[in-house]
Amino acid sequence: MRKTFQKAIGFYLFLFVLPIIFVKIPILAFEPSGKEQVESQPVVYAATTTTKEIPETEEDSPINVLLLFTHSHEAYHPIVKGVVGVTANYHPTSNITNISDLVTQHFQMNNAIVDVLPFDNMKEMKVTNRQFYESYAAIRPVLQKQLSAKSYDLVLDIHRDSAKHKITTQESNNESYARIALVVGAEHPNYKLNDAYAQSLSAELNRIVPNISRGVMTKTKDDGNGIYNQDLLPQSILIELGGIENTEEEINRTIAVLAKAINVVF
User: Fold this and answer.
1) pLDDT > 90 fraction of the chain, expressed in percent and rounded
2) How far, in Å, are 77, 93, 206 from residue 84 at the CA level?
3) pLDDT tier at 33 (50, 70, 90 boundaries)?
4) Are 53 and 208 in contact (CB under 8 A)?
5) Using an 8 Å Cβ cutoff, are 180 and 258 in contact?
6) Is the pLDDT of residue 30 over 90?
7) Assign residue 254 a region: left if phi > 0, alpha if psi is -120 to 50, beta otherwise?
8) Which CATH number describes the domain made up of 41-265?
9) What is the pLDDT of residues 125-183, one digit of tens each?
């Protein structure tokens, strides 16, 4: 009888303290372990015949981008040979400016509005008998005029590097990409602002496709022009898009990645 009474007392005591136990002890199994950063909306990036998906960020107001080509006749060997039958470092019609439409399309898919500076700088330099080293001075008044007429969130001066395919190409997931190098001129007082934007863009490029960016190269007058007209806008970046031996498909894939990275950074 006594044992039965003790069991009954124990049972009622358990019922009494049970709510207290649930209040005092957190139910950890239902607590989130941490916030996951998941980008759920896909965006297509492609070469001429290849499509893949990478995440898309939330859409904000579109950014305004100005695209220019200081060395407008720089050419890619495989492309110029396929078009005109010869290999050339420079060509008046088959050259880097031909990527303008592709850049515009990919940027538009990533919430950017693109204006292309309508100026064939190397053609104009030939007409006015100016030397290659004067190219940035030659295009500067045209660029200044455009910047005074409209406000831009980003200015991209796109070039192609003279380095060979081994240096300017990156393999990732069985696809090859033209690598990007970003150049910042250190010969003006505010160059660190340009450098900060370039470093952020380089990091985002490598987040999307590891090692697609060769990094940021800071140059003085001993290394080249030293300013590259970047003193006109802090968000001005010079991009070396691939090298002389990169193919059209490699360049196309990289433009898609560049558009996505700019969408995230800017």
Assistant:
1) 77
2) 11, 10, 34
3) very low
4) no
5) yes
6) no
7) alpha
8) 3.40.630.40
9) 999 999 999 999 999 999 999 999 999 999 999 999 999 999 999 999 999 999 999 99
Dist. CA 120–CA 117, nearest whole Å = 9
**What are the Cα distances from residue 156, in Å, to 153, 197, 242, 247, 260?**
10, 12, 15, 21, 15
Q: How far apart are CA 196 and CA 148, in angstroms?
A: 24
- Assess contact for 160 and 244: CB atoms under 8 A: yes
Q: Rounding to the nearest 10 degrees, give the CA dihedral for residues 130, 132, 136, 139.
A: 50
* The two structure tokens encoding residue 126: 């030939």
pLDDT category at 60 given cuts 50, 70, 90 is confident
Q: Which pairing describes strands 63-68 and 112-116: parallel, antiparallel, or unpaired?
A: parallel
243: which 2 tokens? 């090298």
Taking CA atoms, 130 is separated from 108, 122, 123, 144, 250, in Å, by 35, 9, 10, 19, 33
Per the CB < 8 A criterion, the answer to whether 159 and 74 are in contact is yes
Domain boundaries, the chain: 41-265
